[in-house]
Amino acid sequence: MSVIPALPFPSISVPRKFQQLHLKSPKLFLIRSSMDTPQPKHVAVCGGGVIGVCTAYFLSKSGANVTLIEQSAVACAASGKAGGFLALDWCDGGPVASLARASFNLHRLLAQELDGPQSYGYRPLTTLSVSVDESLSSSSSSSSNRTGPLPSWVNGPAKSPKTIGSSDSTAQVHPQLFTKTLLSIAMEDYGVELVIGKAERIEMVEGKTRGVVLEDGREIVADAVVLALGPWTKRFSLLGSLFRVYGIKAHSIVLEPKEPDRITPHALFLTYYPAQGGKPMDPEVYPRPTGEVYICGMSAQAEVPDDPAQITPVPESINALKRVAASVSSHLVEGEAAVKTEQACILPCSEDDVPIIGEVPGVKGCYVATGHSCWGILNGPATGAAMAELVLDGHASIVDLSRFNAARFASVLKR
Predict the structure, then answer these.
(1) Distance between CA atoms of residues 38 and 368, nearest Å
(2) Hey, is 352 helix, strand or coil?
(3) Among 20, 51, 17, residue whose Cα is nearest residue 32
(4) Mean pLDDT in each 10-residue stretch from start to end of the chain (415 residues)?
(5) Beta-bridge mates of residue 108
């Protein structure tokens, strides 16, 4: 990773159940206050994506004995293939607003504590909305015609630029590096154990969670179980009878420009008009401090395969993203930028487009955290911190989880 300059961090309010501890180093550490409620001795977290890893991190940091269970590899699905875009207030006015704001601030705090700029590419961004018409020549965006805040590297037929996020309200991380960094620290400093295996079922004794049984017969005994399996949550019949989680397949490419220093930290949200006509597309472009440029889009509902490795990109979608890259910038055309990665992932979505976070109704000691759709990387830290509070203390203070409880689907299922 290239060297990233240190960034100033604004003051951040910390939830009342956490305190700031200033050590000899300038880093900030979250520690959990002592609570009267006894902690479970052992918590099993199923799912090695950003939600599961954040949950394991905050649980273990708060003193729990944590086993993280992952079927394939850590951050092998959406958490390793997402854009890593963070926004403070883009969810304002909706049910996820408080979660998003709390998590954006936790991202800032974690970046300060864990040297995020160096460890996993955390940095503030300026974010623009831009209209691009593929059928027009790049001369339509020449310097004499350019207006607004377009950076010089966006030299294709771009029009109507508008700033929709500042460095105070939008930022980014490299999602795979973020997830793996957090888990590495959780394992090294707080004793999290990683187990590779497919969680098959929840073991119950007299209506209370006893642990997790893996496909190969191994049993992970635990006082509490957290299911953070993204779109694979539906494999548990226990949950399938309560709510539905479906998958949206999203495509992306990662480019390596020959002149990465020319690409400034501006995220682009495009309205893209294909040359052949038809409905405009809404791809997104994220330059990364590693020198790469990530471009995503071309999303549609899809079946969820049993193994994340079975998720393969549709060639037509990848080719469309390459055309987007070439239309946006001459620095991203074939010959000026190498294609490092062509990929697809599946985002977990709930029926009402609101995450499902909380204890499973009627199953004591079993918890679920899924359905974050395209905001999983943003909302991972606050979800993990809230789940840690809920599991260990019986309620969360960092964010009110009542809006996210799975019990909200009960009335629908009874119809």
Answers:
(1) 21
(2) coil
(3) 17
(4) 37 42 32 49 96 98 97 96 98 97 98 97 97 78 58 94 97 98 98 97 91 96 96 85 93 98 97 92 97 96 93 97 97 97 97 96 94 97 98 96 92 47
(5) none
Rounded Cα distance between 52 and 230, Å, is 9
Q: Are strands 126-133 and 158-165 parallel, antiparallel or unpaired?
A: antiparallel
Helix (H) or strand (E) segment spanning residue 86: strand 85-87
Interstrand relation of 208-214 and 199-205 (parallel, antiparallel or unpaired): antiparallel
**E runs forming strands in 288-365:** 293-302, 337-350, 356-359
Is residue 306 classed as helix, strand or coil in its secondary structure? coil
Residue 373: which of 393, 354, 397 has the closest Cα? 354
Number of C-beta neighbours around residue 88 at 10 A = 20
Tokens coding 182: 């957090």
Stated pTM of the model: 0.89
Among 96, 83, 79, CA closest to 297: 83
d(CA 372, CA 374): 6
- Write down how long the chain is: 415
